[in-house]
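tool=predict chain=A
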Amino acid sequence: MQLHIDEAAGTARSTSYYCVTQATPDLPLQVIVTGHYKDTFHRVDGAWWFDSRIMFVDQVGDVSQHLKF
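tool=predict ok
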């Protein structure tokens, strides 16, 4: 994770990374999606509040069995 804080402005932004794995009876454990989030925050009365999140999908693998019920 990368975190950038502007104390004077009371704002912050971060970049976080994610990796989704999956295994099924027919498929071994494998990475099916990777990506990152770009988030923004602001401070009110000393507490940090979440403002926004943008989700980026960087790579997609075999998702043919993902979220099948």
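The two ends are 33 Å apart (CA to CA). Strands lie at 2-6, 11-22, 30-44, 47-60.
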